[in-house]
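4.2 Preliminary Data

To establish feasibility before requesting continued support, the project team ran the inverse folding procedure on a target of 295 residues. The structure was first converted into the token representation described in Section 3, and no sequence information of any kind was made available to the design step. The complete token record follows.
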């Protein structure tokens, strides 16, 4: 029967190589598929990695920019605070220095008032001596009073002094350009006004010196030089003879009195100036004490 016919069995590969080829063909499609898909996966990972790297780099740069800004602000703040501290320190130093200057100027101004008072006091003595000189030398009995007359004539110029206010602190501030430290406008103006007015003393002092020298020449024509020297050494009246009087020439005597009169006038003008400056000095003293809280 046909049913009993043997179904031919599937023929195996003829040889081993065919078997290998067969096996390879059955396996390779999957491998090829995997190999084909692997580059795509690799590319995707690379792109993802690049995106991540790019993203992370952006965050890093943003963070770094903020840090730079913060550091800059901190540095600026430190420099600014240092500048303020230095400014405050310098301001305090200048303020303290100005106060020291004002204290020293007070000493000078008080010395000035003493100078003005002493000048006026000396002038009072000189005025009396000039009046006595005029009275005695014009007296018919002048030889009877030769000792007093000679002493009066000689000691007069010895009592004279130049009127020279103290400008030590002002000149020091001026030369060092520290007058700017006087920050109070009212004080600054008063200081400038007072010290700029003192140059007038130079003029009146020179006038006094000129008339004192002129008087000295005139006195030498009337009195014995040896007796005049003795008086100035002893600083007191000497017992003298009538021979001390060298001449009774009216013109020579008048020359002496004229010089004494001009000398009197020069001292009087200088004294008036000193009186005015004394008031100004006292006003400046009061102002400085008030503005700088000094005693």
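Position-by-position output of the design step:
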């Amino acid at each position: 029967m046909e049913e009993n016919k043997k179904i031919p069995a599937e023929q195996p590969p003829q040889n081993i190589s065919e078997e290998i080829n067969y096996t390879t063909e059955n396996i390779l499609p999957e491998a090829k598929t995997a190999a084909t898909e692997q580059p795509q996966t690799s590319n995707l990972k690379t792109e993802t990695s690049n995106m991540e790297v790019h993203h992370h780099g952006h965050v890093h740069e943003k963070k770094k920019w903020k840090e730079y800004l913060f550091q800059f602000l901190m540095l600026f703040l430190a420099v600014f605070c240092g500048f303020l501290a230095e400014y405050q320190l310098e301001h305090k130093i200048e303020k303290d220095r100005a106060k020291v200057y004002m204290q020293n100027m007070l000493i000078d101004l008080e010395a000035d008032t003493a100078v003005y008072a002493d000048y006026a006091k000396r002038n009072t003595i000189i005025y009396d001596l000039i009046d006595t000189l005029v009275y005695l030398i014009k007296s018919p009995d002048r030889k009877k009073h030769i000792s007093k007359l000679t002493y009066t004539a000689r000691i007069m110029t010895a009592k004279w002094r130049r009127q020279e206010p103290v400008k030590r602190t002002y000149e020091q501030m001026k030369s060092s350009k520290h007058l700017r430290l006087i920050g109070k406008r009212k004080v600054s103006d008063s200081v400038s006004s007072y010290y700029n007015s003192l140059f007038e003393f130079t003029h009146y002092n020179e006038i006094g010196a000129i008339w004192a020298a002129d008087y000295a020449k005139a006195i030498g024509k009337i009195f014995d030089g040896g007796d005049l020297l003795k008086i100035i050494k002893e600083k007191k009246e000497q017992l003298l003879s009538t021979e001390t009087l060298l001449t009774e020439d009216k013109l020579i005597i008048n020359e002496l009195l004229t010089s004494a009169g001009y000398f009197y006038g020069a001292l009087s003008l200088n004294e008036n100036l000193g009186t005015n400056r004394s008031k100004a000095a006292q006003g400046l003293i009061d102002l400085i004490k008030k503005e700088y809280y000094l005693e």
